């Protein structure tokens, strides 16, 4: 006699797996080109005669304009959907990579970098729109895997610049090569992204971007946005100041100084790669609490480090915890978004990403300039401690299921093996 199959532990996805792979490729392409741009800044400075002040201004401007790009992504998504918006954003950043190579001088390259920032914000928001929509169709938490691919892309981008510079490749060749990678990835992913689907539109409603949020949902979304900003303030602070801390405070050489960020990014890849399974086993709230505790321990190691080895270990420990916060934020935001407003809410909360980036540059940098980088990283410990206070937002109330446009995936619990029914109970 044939034995019955065991009950499914998660709802079968209703979208092709190629849509998930294509959205993941978009995350990877974004991380790849951002790493190329940031690691090429010294070459930009030398080629175009940019002062240190102009370099700082260009990085800050990039973050501000990227926030504008996130707002623009909301408007575009209402017209062409998140897939169309993501295609436009990826095309724009590929074009700007070519534009940097073709720039005749400082003014032109600064304009092109601003255009890149606009595209970066569009891609950032639209990629998360796609990822959250795909996650809804899967019925389980998978966002961490998308952000893990972003980390892979970032590492590959940094290695690409290191390898091409080691081979003495011309500046134009490096930029055109990076543009070609993005264009090739876009050509493969573009037709495979999750399209607008009439059946999904019927279930969720049209993303009109209008209407008021219930007060409890508004409070939860703001708390999650602040949590996202705090994470990116620390993340950007590590990216900006880790090498200087190891060099100027702990007196390491340049090669050793680069290991702080490398340790953090490699650990972030591990954390995000394991994030989906961790959420399935213990839930979002427990994961974010564990992540913040690990982050505090890691940054305390950095702030009190007596040697480069201890500081690098601290950056590694920090990376094993904190980087799961961003995908967790977007996952909860997607679940709280009122029916028919998923893309709009994702785009607006994504702005906190760039608020955090600016705070990381301004607050940590200012404190470091006045009191030293040890105190600057002590401030970062405070940011992570504040995340602990906000952890309850990751157990925020769900949206109302009432109304014809209610999302049928709303009742899904991301703890593996459970699926909340309409009455709040579990069905298997």
Spans of at least 5 consecutive residues whose pLDDT stays below 50 are 1-9, 201-210, 399-428
Number of helices: 14
| String of helices and strands | HHHHHHHHHHHHHHEE
Number of strands: 2
- Sheet with the most strands? 2 strands, antiparallel
Alpha carbon gyration radius = 21 Å
CATH superfamily of the largest domain: MFS general substrate transporter like domains
Mean pLDDT: 83
The general outline is globular
Number of domains in the coordinates? 2
Query: What is the helix fraction of residues, given as a range?
Result: over 70%
| Distance, first to last CA | 24 Å
Q: Could you say which structural class the secondary elements and strand pairing correspond to?
A: mainly alpha
Please identify the top-level CATH class of the largest domain: Mainly Alpha
Report strand %. Answer: under 5%
- What do we call the CATH topology of the largest domain? Growth Hormone, Chain: A
Strand order in space, largest sheet: 1-2
The CATH architecture designation of the largest domain is Up-down Bundle
